[in-house]
Amino acid sequence: MAVAIRPADRPGDLGWIVQAHGELYARELGWDVSFERLVAGIVGGLDAVRDKVWIAELDGVRVGCVSCMTADDGDAVLRILLVHPDGRGHGVGSKLVDTCLDHARDRASSGCGCGPPTGRRRPVRSTCAAASRSSASSSRSTGSGPRSSARPIA
Questions:
Q1: Residue 148 in this model has a pLDDT that exceeds 60
Q2: 1 touches 59 (CB < 8 A)
Q3: pLDDT reading at 6 higher than 50
Q4: pLDDT higher at 126 or 91
Q5: Whole-angstrom Cα distance, residue 128 to residue 124?
Q6: CB 56 within 8 Å of CB 88
């Protein structure tokens, strides 16, 4: 199976990002539509010049996304990282994060973090690694169902 990362520049890409976040977080974490509204606000607030968004496809089917937003201080901020269950185990998340980090380096950002474009941010790699460990241990310890300790990167 081939994983491809491409810009989110096709009709339906931005809507898919919002829909996939809403459906996945509701199913896996039991969250309500307020999180989908949050993601819709983030997507709606993207600056077409300063911010970049990518879609991951597995054999031509969307399975993930990430954005690299520009904070007021010039740092790059990773947001809306998502890997659909159909894309898990194929390196999709790593490829999305690497794409974001490469973009940040190419534009000479002073740093790259996770979190909102204003306020306190955490370094990307440590946040993604912690989220991965938390998700894996939560799913092993509780089986399927809501995992209230999960933290979205939105």
A1: no
A2: yes
A3: yes
A4: 91
A5: 6
A6: no
The token pair at 11 is 């009709």
Q: pLDDT (tens digit, 9 = 90+) per residue, 27-45?
A: 999 999 999 999 999 999 9
Please spell the DSSP secondary structure of 79-126, one letter per residue: EEEEE-GGGTTTTHHHHHHHHHHHHHHHTT-S-EEES-SSS--EEHHH
User: Going from the N-terminus, what domains does the chain have, and what CATH number goes with each?
Assistant: 3-142 (3.40.630.30)
Q: DSSP 3-state assignment of 143?
A: coil
Instruction: Please tell me the chain's helix, strand, coil percentages from 3-state DSSP, rounded to the nearest 5.
Output: 45, 25, 35
* Contacts of residue 115, Cβ cutoff 8 Å, sequence gap at least 6: 77, 121, 122, 127, 153
